[in-house]
Design brief:
Keywords: Coiled coil. The chain has helices at about 40-55, 60, 70-80, 85-105, 110-140, 170-205, 210-230, 235-240, 255-265, 275-290, 295-335, 350-360, 365-405, 455-485, 510-535; strands at about 5, 10, 35, 405-415, 420-425, 430-440, 440-450, 485, 490-495, 500, 510. By secondary structure, the chain is of the alpha+beta class. Strands 1, 3, 4, 5, 6, 7, 9, 10 and 11 form a 9-stranded mixed β-sheet that branches. Helix 5 runs parallel beside helix 6 and helix 11 (about 295-335) packs antiparallel against helix 12.
């Protein structure tokens, strides 16, 4: 065996990974290669690896004191932007439950990565609701928006700023999340009440007596209560939309019952229902009320028509709301700019323009535009995951060298995303391991120093011995990458021996910074322990299965 091939897959996002700096821009700075700034890669990847690999027992409880890295944070936001409303709501429910467990000092079964994903997904959800609400309120406040309506202007949402999970501690983020969730919920309720009054004024329902109007007002109040209840994370997780408008009018209704049913139907209109469809429902109810006394059968037909119009209007209102909130979460992800000095990712200006149009003008995306936006988001997510894999592979090799000794270097040759060289103890001067990451595939090969050519029997025997040792080392490498959230399974390739090459050409020495990384990590761990002691005692479960 001389090499192993694997296709790294991101199993989970380790929370503490930050963006690496870009490679040098001047080609002459490093002939034939672009250098990986491996001291930063090791600082970001190995820094949190020591906790993940060496202190897994403390992982879940320590998560509350962890700070989210920039690369981890934007990658979690990208994943959240591409999942369904129901999954985001489920994450929000989990994040709230985990915060309550933390406050009550109860055991948590979730790992640090799982806790961070739930909180980050919940942050994306509430930020999108906030952004979409502000956009709706802004459109409603424009002169002439929506035709007739109440004389008062729409309430101006008084909301805290959006959540920025990157750089925050998990415990602080979850507290901010609860506060913003509550503020958005109250602001949505106030805006829905205003929109309902605007819709009612636009419909100008004049049919019916005082009893009819009282029944209509009560039905509208119930609709507002249901609207608020259905906007909670728990309700969205269950995702059981109300279907009352599906009922058909019962036979044998008298005039009073027709008027009562008409008021109930019209009051069930979604506050954000389109005025055109709502007017059709109001007209059908008006016909039913007028025909109730002399032609109850015809009145029932009009009621059934009104139910259909209300059902369609409510369905379209929900879809519009979901589309606007999805546009907001995609906009937040695609508008993200990497930190100053970090490796940049391509902007998606065409998709951002379309998403701004959805939010600023209320114009929905066409199918082709929706495909373009989804494609840009997926491209950016893939680019970020490639960067994450590169960082974690560099960190894993640095950790391997730290555990077992030997010299490690990293480089960015032309045509490769990453090249890592490691000389295990006892392999010098003639052999080393080389890992190359190219287009999503990771190949690890046993190398010997020199040019291609005939090897002596003694050299071939040593090549075979090194190849045999490589099997065990690949297993170690695989274990470490697993703690970093990468799923690796090497396919071992049988060849005649090691491969020729030049060790460490134009590469950066990883060993020079490992001592600093270990010292920095020890300092971070000591700071977390001090914070934990100030926050009160923690209780570990008796079974010790990575839970707190």
């Amino acid at each position: 065996m001389s090499s192993g091939l694997a296709f790294p897959m991101t199993d989970f996002i380790a929370p503490a990974v930050s963006f690496p700096p870009p490679p040098p821009l001047e080609a002459q700075a490093l002939p034939h290669t672009g250098m990986l700034h491996a001291h930063d890669a090791v600082g970001h990847a190995s820094g949190h690896l020591a906790d993940a690999a060496g202190h897994a027992v403390h992982e879940a409880a320590d998560a509350a004191l962890q700070v989210l890295g920039s690369l981890s944070g934007v990658l979690l936001a990208g994943r959240a932007a591409l999942v369904t409303t129901r999954l985001l709501a489920a994450a929000a429910v989990r994040a709230a439950d985990e915060q309550r467990c933390l406050e009550r000092q109860q055991a948590l079964a979730a790992t640090a990565a799982e806790q961070w994903q739930a909180a980050a997904f919940a942050a994306v959800r509430v930020n999108a609701r906030r952004h979409a609400l502000l956009a709706r309120a802004g459109r409603a406040a424009r002169p002439g928006a929506g035709g007739g309506g109440p004389a008062d202007a729409p309430p101006r949402p008084d909301l805290p700023p959006p959540l920025t999970p990157i750089g925050e501690r998990l415990c602080d983020l979850r507290q901010d999340l609860a506060r913003l969730e509550e503020a958005v919920q109250r602001a949505e309720e106030r805006h829905a009440e205003w929109e309902q009054r605007r819709l009612a004024a636009a419909l100008r329902v004049t049919e019916g007596d005082d009893d009819f109007r009282r029944a209509l007002d009560e039905s509208r109040r119930r609709t507002l209560r249901r609207f608020a209840e259905e906007r909670t994370a728990g309700a969205e997780e269950r995702q059981v939309p109300r279907q009352t408008a599906e009922r058909r009018a019962a036979p044998g209704l008298d005039a009073d019952e027709v008027r009562g049913a008409g008021a109930e139907i019209l009051g069930e209109l979604d506050p954000q229902a389109a005025a055109v469809t709502a007017e059709l429902a109001a007209a059908a109810v008006g016909h039913a009320v007028r025909r109730a006394a002399d032609d109850p059968r015809r009145a029932r037909i009009h009621l059934n028509e009104a139910r259909k119009f209300v059902r369609d209007a409510n369905r379209d209102a929900r879809r519009t709301r979901e589309a606007e909130e999805r546009a907001a979460q995609l906009h937040e992800f695609l508008a993200y700019r990497t930190p100053e000095g970090a490796e940049d990712i391509d902007p998606a200006s065409d998709a951002l323009a379309l998403l701004r149009r959805v939010l600023d003008e209320g114009v929905p995306l066409s199918p082709a535009e929706r495909d373009l936006v989804e494609r840009r988001a997926e491209e950016r997510r893939c680019a970020l995951e490639d960067l994450y894999v590169r960082e974690q592979c560099a960190g894993a090799l640095a950790e391997l060298a730290h555990r077992f000794g030997g010299r490690a270097t990293a480089a960015r040759p032309e045509g490769q995303e990453l090249r890592l060289d490691w000389t295990p103890p006892g392999w010098e001067p003639g052999h080393w391991l080389r890992a190359g990451l190219v287009e999503g595939s990771l190949r690890v090969a046993t190398m010997y120093r020199g040019a291609p050519g005939e090897r002596t029997p003694e050299q071939r025997a040593l090549d075979d011995a090194r190849c045999h040792e490589t099997r065990e080392l690949l297993g170690r490498f695989q274990e470490i990458t697993g703690t970093l959230g990468l799923e690796l399974e090497f396919t071992l390739e049988q060849t005649e021996g090691a491969l020729p090459g030049v060790l460490g050409e134009d590469a950066w020495n990883l060993d020079d910074v490992l001592d600093d990384v270990v010292a920095e990590e020890a300092g971070r761990r000591a700071a977390r322990e001090r914070d934990a002691s100030r926050e009160g005692p923690r209780h570990r479960t008796a079974d010790g299965d990575r839970r707190r």
